[in-house]
Amino acid sequence: MFDRLSSLSESALAKISSAKTSEELESLRISYLGKKSELKALLKKLGVLPAEEKPRFGAAVNDAVKKIESRLLMRRQELLSSAASVKKIIGGVDYTRPGFIQKPGLPHPLISTIEKIQKIFLRLGYGIAEGPDIEDDQHNFSDLNFPTDHPARDAQDTFFIEPIHADNPLLLRTHTSPLQIRVMSCLNPPFAVIVPGRTYRSDAPDATHSPIFHQVEGLVVDENITMSDLKGTLSFFAKELFGPDFKIRFRPSFFPFTEPSAEVDVSCVSCSGKGKISSDCRVCKGTGWLEILGAGMVDPNVFESACRRRGDRVYDPEKVSGFAFGMGVERIAMLTHNIDDMRNFFENDSRFLEMLAS
Length: 358
Ligand SMILES: [Zn+2]
Prior knowledge:
Blueprint: H1 2-17, H2 22-33, H3 38-44, H4 54-85, E1 89-90, E2 93-94, H5 109-123, E3 127-128, E4 134-136, H6 137-140, E5 170-172, H7 178-186, E6 191-200, E7 212-222, H8 227-242, E8 248-255, E9 258-267, E10 289-298, H9 300-310, E11 321-328, H10 329-337, H11 350-357
Parallel strand pairs: 3-6
Antiparallel strand pairs: 1-2, 4-5, 6-7, 7-11, 8-9, 9-10, 10-11
The structure holds zinc ion.
Zinc ion binds near residues 270 and 281.
């Protein structure tokens, strides 16, 4: 039995040393150390040995098992390290190289800001309207009560599309407001819509300007709509977007398509509106307020434009009234994410985008 044990052990160690794959090693392990292995069968025959030989034979079996186990371990490590060092390059392709990690996509911060704004207005019962990026002068300016000599109509401010037709040139829309006319052309009051979209102005890119930017327009038309409806709506919006403690204020302003018009400020997101108390606040420059949008009551001339396009008096300014507002999405995204340079949104630096998503 001692001879059989010794020859069994020798053949096991030799076969393990010459194994070529880890699968081969595993089958050797099972055949030499498994429950049905000859080694285990030899152990069961321990009873037939004379009493004085039993301990010696038991120790010899244990010794053989230890040797086989350690040779198995050694050979497994050899096979693993040779697999790692020998790269199987076939036809110029390294099939052993780890794959590239495919990162899941993320919404761009401007898209997620638009979605946040949309959600707030959808809760208030607003619909969403969209329109073309290429507009004509009529929708972009004339129907919105812009005088013919308004500076916004200058080629320095607006991207016109060649060939330029003298009576109604095509252009890249400078705001989302042309949708006011498009929506009124096909919807009867009462209605409430927001218009998210891309807009274009001939501005050189800097920290606060970009030739492409995004706006969300709002338009509500019904009977007896007043400035207090506008204030209530925008106050609700600011609290939902920035937090319950945020306040808004209206400052008188002028836009061709609203009368009266107002610039709307929200309490500073950085110093929480403390303003002069923390006069070192760089974000609001110590005023405590940040401008976020322009708004006002729809100018009667805009309602007249809608009537002209429709050929009826559904939007008779004596019967209906409404309010409109327009906000810059980049401005709001910069305030909510504390970003000081608008160009970051357009540079496609994935580190910046991932930082905002986390
Ligand atoms: Zn501040």
